[in-house]
C-alpha cells in the first residue's frame, strides 16, 4: 500500500557512495524505506545514472515518470540534497511507499521456518541451493531418457558447483539449442522458481506433445550465482551480487555488469561496494567465466536463443542494453518479444512491457548483450542469438518487490511456460 508521506528533511551534506553502500548491506533492513522519486521523463536517465553510479543506491524499479529506490536509515538527506535536485530539477517529488522493509522480510522468514511448508508441493514455496540441486538430480534420475544432470560447469569463490541441466529427447539427431538461466541476481528468487517450473513442464509435457524436445535441446543453468543466492537465505535477503572479496574489503560483483561486452562503458559502477559494481576487469568473475565458456563449448554450438530470468517489473527486454542503436535483427527481435508479451497476457491477464533494454536504462557488461554481441556471433559463424532478459512479477507499482508471495510461483510459471513455448518455436523457425 502507498503510505504517501512526503519527506521534508534538512540537507546535512552529501553522503559518499561508499558510505551509502555500507548502510544498504544487511543482514537486517530495519527502517529501510522504499521511496518513489517522481521525475520528469526528460531527466529520468540522468537521475537513474546519478542514483546508481554516483550514489550507489539500490534502485528497485524504473518507470517512465518515476524511480523507486531503497533508502537506508541515515541516508534520508540525499533526497533533499543539492546534487540530487541539480540533476532532477525542481519538479522532483518524493513519496514513501514503505517505511520499514524489514517487515516483509520478517514475514517471509517466519513462513519459511514453518514446518507445514516443507511438506507441501515443490512449487508451493522457494528453496535453498542444495535442495534445488537435489530436485534436479531427481528429475534426471526419474527421466533418464530426457534429462541429463551436469554436476559442475565451474566452481564459485566459496566452492559451490554451478550445475547445468540438459533436456531433450533421443529422437531427432543434431538439434537447435535454447539456453535458460536464473538467479544471476541473488535476491530475485522468482527467477529461480520459474526456471524450475519451466524445466518441470518441459519434461512433463513430452508425453502429450513431443514437438519441443524432438526439435530442440534445452540447456539450463538454474542457479547462476549460488554463493549470492545462499547469502540471501543466511546473510541478507536483499543481496544482489556474487560473494567475491573486493580490493577495498567489500564483497560482491554484479555479475550482470561483468560480461565481456562493452564492459565498463557506462551503466555500471566502478565502486566495489556498489550494488552494480562491474568487477575489476571484464569477465573477471568465476560465474561469468564458467558460463561464457560453457555457452561457447562445442556441445552447445547450435544455440539459437537464450533467456536470462530476473525480477521484477514485468518486462520483456531485447538487445541492446549498452547503446540506443537498434540491433541488426531489431524487427525479428521485436516480433518475438512482443509475441511473448501478448501470450503472457493471454494466460492470467498480466501486462508485461516489451522494449529494448537500453530504453529501460543503460547497462554494459550484461549477459544478454554478450550473447547477442560480436564474440558469440563470430564464434557461431555469424549466426545470432535471440537474446532476452525477462523481468518477472510483480509490477513496479507493488511494494513487495523481490519478496514475491509464493502463491505467485505457479501462476508466474504458467504465464512464462505458455509464452516461451511459443517463443521457442518462433526462434527455431526463424533462425
Ligand atoms: N534489471 C537487470 C539488471 O539491472 C536487467 C537489466 C536489463 N538491461 C538494461 N539495459 N536495462 O541487470
Ligand atoms: Zn536482476
From TrEMBL:
Keyword presence, Hydrolase: yes
Peptidase M14 domain residues: 125-427
Record PROSITE patterns: PEPTIDASE_M14 (PS52035)
Entry keyword set: Carboxypeptidase, Hydrolase, Metal-binding, Metalloprotease, Protease, Signal, Zinc
Cellular compartments per GO CC: extracellular space
Transmembrane stretches, start-end: none
Keyword Protease: yes
BP term (GO), one: proteolysis
SUPFAM superfamilies: Protease propeptides/inhibitors (SSF54897), Zn-dependent exopeptidases (SSF53187)
PANTHER family referenced in this protein's UniProt entry, alphabetically: PROTEASE FAMILY M14 CARBOXYPEPTIDASE A,B, SLL0236 PROTEIN
Record's protein name: Peptidase M14 domain-containing protein
Organism: Spizellomyces punctatus (strain DAOM BR117)
Amino acid at each position: 500500500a502507498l503510505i504517501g508521506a512526503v519527506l521534508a528533511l534538512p540537507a546535512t551534506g552529501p553522503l559518499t557512495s561508499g558510505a551509502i553502500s555500507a548502510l544498504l548491506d544487511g543482514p537486517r533492513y530495519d527502517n529501510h524505506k522504499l521511496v518513489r522519486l517522481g521525475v520528469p521523463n526528460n531527466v529520468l536517465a540522468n537521475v537513474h545514472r546519478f542514483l546508481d553510479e554516483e550514489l550507489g543506491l539500490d534502485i528497485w524499479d524504473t518507470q517512465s515518470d518515476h524511480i523507486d529506490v531503497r533508502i537506508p536509515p541515515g541516508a534520508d538527506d540525499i533526497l533533499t540534497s543539492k546534487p540530487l535536485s541539480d540533476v532532477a530539477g525542481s519538479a522532483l517529488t518524493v513519496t514513501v511507499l514503505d517505511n520499514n522493509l524489514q517487515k516483509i522480510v520478517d514475514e517471509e522468514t517466519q513462513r519459511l521456518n514453518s514446518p507445514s511448508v516443507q511438506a507441501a508441493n515443490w512449487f508451493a514455496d522457494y528453496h535453498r541451493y542444495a535442495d534445488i540441486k537435489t530436485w534436479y538430480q531427481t528429475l534426471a534420475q526419474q527421466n533418464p531418457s530426457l534429462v541429463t544432470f551436469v554436476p559442475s560447469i565451474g566452481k564459485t569463490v566459496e566452492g559451490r558447483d554451478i550445475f547445468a541441466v540438459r533436456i531433450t529427447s533421443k529422437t531427432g539427431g543434431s538439434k537447435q539449442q535454447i539456453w535458460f538461466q536464473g538467479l544471476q541476481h541473488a535476491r530475485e528468487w522468482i527467477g529461480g522458481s520459474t526456471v524450475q517450473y519451466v524445466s518441470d513442464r518441459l519434461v512433463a509435457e513430452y508425453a502429450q506433445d513431443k514437438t519441443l524436445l524432438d526439435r530442440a535441446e534445452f540447456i539450463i543453468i538454474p542457479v547462476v550465482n549460488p554463493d549470492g543466492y545462499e547469502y540471501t537465505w543466511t546473510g541478507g535477503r536483499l543481496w544482489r551480487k556474487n560473494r567475491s572479496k573486493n580490493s577495498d574489503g567489500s564483497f560482491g560483483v554484479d555479475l550482470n555488469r561483468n560480461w565481456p561486452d562493452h564492459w565498463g562503458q557506462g551503466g555500471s559502477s566502478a565502486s566495489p561496494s556498489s550494488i552494480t559494481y562491474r568487477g575489476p576487469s571484464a569477465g573477471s568473475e568465476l560465474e561469468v567465466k564458467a558460463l561464457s565458456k560453457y555457452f561457447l563449448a562445442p556441445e552447445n554450438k547450435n544455440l539459437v536463443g537464450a533467456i536470462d530470468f530476473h525480477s521484477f517489473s514485468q518486462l520483456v527486454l531485447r538487445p541492446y542494453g549498452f547503446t540506443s542503436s537498434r540491433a541488426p535483427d531489431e524487427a525479428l527481435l521485436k516480433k518475438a518479444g512482443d509475441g511473448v508479451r501478448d501470450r503472457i497476457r493471454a494466460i492470467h491477464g498480466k501486462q508485461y512491457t516489451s522494449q529494448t533494454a537500453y530504453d529501460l536504462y543503460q547497462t554494459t557488461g550484461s549477459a544478454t548483450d554478450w550473447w547477442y554481441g560480436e564474440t558469440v556471433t563470430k564464434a557461431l559463424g555469424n549466426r545470432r542469438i535471440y537474446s532476452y532478459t525477462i523481468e518477472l512479477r510483480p509490477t513496479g507499482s507493488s511494494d513487495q518487490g523481490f519478496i514475491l508471495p509464493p502463491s505467485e510461483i505457479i501462476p508466474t510459471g504458467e504465464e512464462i511456460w505458455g509464452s516461451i513455448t511459443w517463443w521457442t518455436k518462433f526462434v527455431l523457425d526463424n533462425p
